Structures are given as structure tokens and as C-alpha cells.
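Section 5: illustrative case.
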């Protein structure tokens, strides 16, 4: 067979390097360690990219899929961590980016009747490499319930409440359980969410939220205090959105910090 023309390797004269180029939204099976059940199987949506020097016309898209499939029919955390270095080697790049986004399920029992149901959370693994340096960030997306302190203070009957979504991203000193991050967030809200609730459970969670009102500002501060005190976390970013039930807008707050250990609980702003 005659040699085929390699257009990607042709020279480009526009002198514009590309920050990231690759493949996006590839679905692939993933096996993840589960604190509760040892192992959990899910499906990840995968993004993979490298940088491209200005003098190359294009990258070799097929090599991204070759690296992905080289790890077999199922990914693990260790194989994800190795991929950026493999991409840099295969594509002669200086930087590489791998992102895995997937649903993560936990079995939760209702607080009174103990009825069990599955609740899903969003999880993202993001690994960036530049030379020998590796940056690993884990993100959890945790739905919660919040009750407005102001509404409770001024109303004779009840208080408005709503669902919220907390997104917590962390860099860590040692591997940390996804469940630990989820529980850290849930304990910072007015009340956690459940999949199955009977009437006694509804009474319990409604009263729990009423007894623990939080603004969106309280929510991010509560998470930040606990993340900053966690011995394994060295950086975090917490974002909370309350999907307001009586306003035509959402409430939103963000805190990002580096965590140092020279002083107990010390946090540095970013």
C-alpha cells in the first residue's frame, strides 16, 4: 500500500499555538472505588486534549482514542491519572488534559422509616499535566435543601425553602473518598436530600430544615470551614446556587482557598 499523506503534520504559517485540542464527550465505562460497597460501575463522559505548537497544522485525533482504549474496556482511577503523560508522549505535546464526568450513586435510608433509595451525585475527575508536573482535581456536585433565615425571622407561619446545588472541587494531599466530600457538603446545608421519603420522613426533614436555616452565604462558609479543617485537603473551591422558590432569580456564592498547615485551620485566599 502506498504511503498516505499525513496532513496533520504539515506546517502552519499563521503562528497561532492552540491551548487545547482533542476529543470531547466520549462515553466510556468506569470502575470507581466505593467506600460503602467497595466498587461501583458507572459511565463517564470523557474529554481529552493536548496543546498544539503554532507550526503544526493539526493533531492526531485517533491517538486520543488509542490511549483511552489501551486501558481496556473499563477505566480505574490509576489509569485516569496515567493518561496525560501517555498523551504527551504519543502526541509530542508539552501539556495534556483529561476530564472524566460521571454520575455516582449512593444508597440512602430515610431518617425515620429507613426506607432505602438511590441518590445520584455528579463527580468530575480532572487531571492536567505539564512536563513532569501533575495536577489532580476532584469535584462533587451535591444537591441540598436550604431554608431562608430571613423568611423564618419575619414570617408568622413557615419559611420559604428550596433545593440548592453545591459544587465542591478539591486538591488533596492523599486520596480522599467521594463519600467524605458528599457528607461534608450535606452536613453544611439546612437538610440533605433523599430519594424515598414516607410521611414520617417528610415531617422529620421539614422540621430539620426549619431548625437549621442557612443563607447561600452560610452554606459556602460552612463548607469552606469544614474543607479548610480537613487534613487531606490542600485547596478547595466551593460554589453554591440556591434555586429560589419565591424569587425570579437564583442566589449564588463562591469561596476559593489554598489551605496551609502552619497554623491550625489557616486558609489563604486565591
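Designed sequence:
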Amino acid at each position: 500500500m502506498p504511503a498516505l499523506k499525513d496532513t496533520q503534520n504539515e506546517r502552519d504559517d499563521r503562528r497561532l499555538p492552540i491551548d487545547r485540542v482533542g476529543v470531547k464527550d466520549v462515553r466510556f465505562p468506569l470502575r470507581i472505588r466505593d467506600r460503602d460497597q467497595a466498587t461501583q460501575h458507572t459511565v463517564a463522559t470523557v474529554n481529552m486534549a493536548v496543546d498544539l505548537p503554532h507550526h503544526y497544522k493539526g493533531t492526531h485525533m485517533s491517538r486520543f482514542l488509542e490511549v483511552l482504549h489501551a486501558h481496556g474496556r473499563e477505566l480505574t482511577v490509576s489509569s485516569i491519572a496515567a493518561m496525560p503523560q501517555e498523551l504527551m508522549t504519543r502526541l509530542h505535546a508539552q501539556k495534556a488534559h483529561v476530564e472524566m464526568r460521571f454520575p455516582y450513586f449512593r444508597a440512602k435510608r430515610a431518617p425515620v422509616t429507613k426506607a432505602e433509595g438511590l441518590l445520584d451525585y455528579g463527580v468530575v475527575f480532572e487531571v492536567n499535566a505539564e512536563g513532569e508536573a501533575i495536577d489532580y482535581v476532584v469535584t462533587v456536585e451535591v444537591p441540598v435543601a436550604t431554608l431562608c433565615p430571613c423568611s423564618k425571622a419575619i414570617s408568622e407561619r413557615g419559611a420559604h425553602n428550596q433545593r440548592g446545588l453545591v459544587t465542591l472541587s478539591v486538591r488533596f494531599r492523599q486520596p480522599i473518598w467521594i463519600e467524605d466530600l458528599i457528607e461534608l457538603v450535606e452536613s453544611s446545608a439546612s437538610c440533605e436530600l433523599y430519594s424515598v421519603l414516607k410521611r414520617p420522613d417528610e415531617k422529620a426533614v421539614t422540621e430539620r430544615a426549619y431548625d437549621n436555616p442557612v443563607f447561600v452565604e452560610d452554606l459556602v462558609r460552612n463548607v469552606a470551614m469544614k474543607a479548610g479543617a480537613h487534613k487531606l485537603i490542600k485547596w478547595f473551591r466551593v460554589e453554591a446556587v440556591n434555586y429560589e422558590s419565591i424569587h425570579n432569580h437564583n442566589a449564588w456564592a463562591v469561596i476559593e482557598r489554598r489551605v496551609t498547615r502552619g497554623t491550625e485551620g489557616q486558609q489563604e485566599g486565591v
